[in-house]
Each structure stands twice: as structure tokens, then as C-alpha cells.
Amino acid sequence: MPILRIQRTCRFGNNVYQLYNAILFANQIKAAAIDVSGLSLFNMFRKDFVSYVCFNRVKLINDPKIKDDIITAKFFHPHDFAGYEFKPDRTISKLVFEDIRQAMGISSKIIGRSEDIVCHIRSGDIFLRDRPKHNYTQPPVSFYLKAVEDNLNRHNKVKIVFENKANPCVNGLCQELEKRKIGFICQSGTLTEDILSILEAKTVVSGKGTFIPMIASISGKTEKLIVFRKDVIFNSNFFDYLNVKVETYIDNGNDYIPDRGWKICRPPTKEALEQLDMIISYPLENIVKL
């Protein structure tokens, strides 16, 4: 039986999604094992990862020296399966993500349960690139504010998690919450610290990307994921078997930055400056829940 090897990528959410797909694919073709040495997932919550046996007897191993009967691929997009047709069985998703959580060393001993509304604001790379990443349009301040107002109650508070303040949403959301006298705390810790805070949250508000949907998938604690606009992957049937409710908000006038129209880069162009302003100023009344 073949062994799958996942090609190296650098981002946490992508790594989790690749591993999820690889486990489903291994189940499909009856692969013996998956070499995860190319992933960075296993050095965050545990030390010296060697192996883990999944529910379907597929073994996760950390051995880059294996060379015989290897299928190497990214296992991300449908065309990333080394020429094979990928036919995922989504009905086993919950079991797969439970295996991923256990293999990573994320146990109930290290994550609690929080009623907080966690808003993760993506920043960093997509605001600091020389060339814009056109398909990563991030939502406006008004999306986060609307999501908070719709879900806030006397039992919860707001936690804003971010990498840095390159995204003007960070300061913009803080200012809007202060105006409304809504209590909040900010967190910009290590990657591991931020992931742990998001893992324990009952309600998570997400920007565009794989980071938050994948944390919600492995969490076991997330009940509601709030996203901006429909996503090709995560607004289909992806969460149907994970007991996570997905709520989608849109720009009612369809006049916010287009999905593939992200122009923000460094140094900023005229278009980038206009979009940075729109992130802050886009009207709250134009954000509606589907």
C-alpha cells in the first residue's frame, strides 16, 4: 500500500486542510500511512512527534527519509492529488478532525470553554506584500461590528485577536466598540497563544482565509462561525458534519471591494489607499445576514 507525503506549505490553516484532505484520500485509496514531516503542525503543542494512528488505521508518521511507494502532493485543491481523482467522504469529517486535534496534542487539558465572541482580524502578509494577493479581500470594520451586535449578550464579551495592526480593522473596530461602550479585550500573542484563545471560543468571527475555518473544525468547542460572503470551500457542505453553524454576512449593495479585487500592497498605490479607506468607512447599514 502506498504512503502519502504532504508537500510543505507555510501557513497553519493550509496545513490543517491539507492533512484533512490527505486523511480522506488515504481512506479512499487505502494508503498505509501519511508522512507529515513537511507540516509545521506537530511542534506547537507537543514535542518529538513520532506517529499517530487514526480511527481508520491510517498512520501519521514523521519520516522524511522514506522513498519507496510514495505519493507526494499538496492535497489542497482538487488538482493537487498527483493525478488522482479525489472523492472525499465528508461524513467522516468529525472523526478526521478529532484525530488531527489529538495528533497535534490539543487536549481538553489545555483548552477551556469561553462564551466570548472572538473576532479574528487577518493582518500581516496580505497588507504588506509588494504585489497584492487579489483573491484575499478582507471584510470591513462594519462586518465585525454587525456580527458583534447581533450576538452580544450579558453572558459574553468581545475578544479581538490579530497578528499586528497592519489591517486598519483592528483600530477601527476598537474605536467603534468604545463609542458604543461595548467591552472588549485585544490579544496579539504568539501563534500558539492566539490559536488556543480561538479554539475555546463558542462564537468566532472570521476574515478571509483558511486559518479560522480550520481552527473551528478541530476545536470541538466552536458552535457558530460567522463569515463575510460565501466561500467556495467553507460555505458548501463542509461544516454539515461538524456541528458548527455557519452564518454568512454580505454587503447588501454588492459595492464593497470585489472578492478578487484586493489591491492593497506596500508601498500603497492610489487604489490601495482607496480600499484601506473603504475598510474603515463602509456603512454598517449595508451589512446584512443571509
Quantity of strands, as a count: 12
Strands side by side in the biggest sheet: 8-7-6-9-10-11-12
**Beta-strand share of residues:** 15-25%
Q: Which structural class matches the secondary elements?
A: alpha/beta
- What's the multimeric state? single chain
Number of helices: 8
Describe this structure in words.
By secondary structure, this protein is of the alpha/beta class. It has two domains: 102 residues, no CATH class; 176 residues, Rossmann fold (3-Layer(aba) Sandwich). The chain has eight helices and twelve strands. The strands form two sheets. Strands 8-7-6-9-10-11-12 form a seven-stranded mixed beta sheet, sandwiched between helices. A five-stranded mixed beta sheet has the order 3-4-2-1-5, covered by helices on one side. Helix 1 crosses helix 7 and helix 4 packs across helix 5.
Q: Could you outline the blueprint of secondary structure elements for this entry?
A:
Blueprint: E1 3-6, H1 12-29, E2 33-35, E3 51-53, E4 59-61, E5 70-73, H2 93-104, E6 114-121, H3 125-128, H4 141-151, E7 158-162, H5 169-179, E8 184-187, H6 191-199, E9 201-206, H7 211-219, E10 224-228, E11 245-251, H8 270-281, E12 287-289
Parallel strand pairs: 1-2, 1-5, 2-4, 6-7, 6-9, 7-8, 9-10, 10-11
Antiparallel strand pairs: 3-4, 11-12
Helix pairs in contact: 1-2, 1-7, 4-5
